[in-house]
């Protein structure tokens, strides 16, 4: 068992890669970011925007499919109704004629604006106070 652990530990640490070379490569990267700020700020921003748009498109695709299916069902229902009636669905529905003069006359008959009674509306503070 101990020999296997020793072999595994040798595999994990690579003696050919020294800490000095790791620090050197890290300093090269920080030098790139100082020389071109696009690598530090622009590239993450552009990649986040592109991957965000792709991700949102993937999420929205499901709701678009549901909406499309609903529209198809409504269209089939409309076509079925049209096929069942001789004149079609638009001829089957005839709205009532509407005129403003008739509506005004009807309102004047229901409400008398010349004979009314003044009523005092109690304020919210008045209802809470107790009279001494």
From TrEMBL:
- Subcellular localization: Mitochondrion inner membrane
Annotated Gene Ontology cellular components are: mitochondrial inner membrane
> According to the UniProt entry, which residue ranges have a biased composition of type Polar residues?
14-24
Question: What keywords appear on the UniProt entry?
Answer: Membrane, Mitochondrion, Mitochondrion inner membrane, Transmembrane, Transmembrane helix
Q: Where is the segment annotated Disordered?
A: 1-24
Give the transmembrane ranges: 38-60
How would you describe this protein's topology in the membrane? Single-pass membrane protein
Q: Which family does it belong to?
A: Belongs to the COX16 family.
What is the protein name stated in its UniProt record? Uncharacterized protein
Query: Source species, please?
Result: Spirodela intermedia (Intermediate duckweed)
Q: What is the lineage of its organism?
A: Eukaryota, Viridiplantae, Streptophyta, Embryophyta, Tracheophyta
């Amino acid at each position: 068992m101990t020999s296997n652990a020793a072999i595994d530990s040798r595999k994990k640490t690579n003696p050919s890669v020294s800490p000095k070379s790791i620090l050197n490569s890290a300093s090269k990267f920080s030098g790139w970011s100082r020389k071109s700020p696009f690598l530090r700020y622009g590239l993450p921003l552009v990649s986040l925007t592109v991957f965000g748009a792709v991700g949102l498109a993937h999420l929205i695709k499901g709701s678009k499919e549901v909406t499309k299916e609903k529209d198809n069902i409504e269209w089939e229902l409309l076509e079925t109704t049209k096929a069942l009636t001789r004149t079609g669905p638009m001829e089957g529905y005839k709205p009532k004629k509407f005129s403003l003069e008739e509506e005004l006359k009807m309102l004047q008959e229901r409400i008398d604006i010349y004979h009314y009674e003044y009523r005092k509306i109690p304020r919210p503070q008045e209802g809470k106070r107790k009279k001494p």
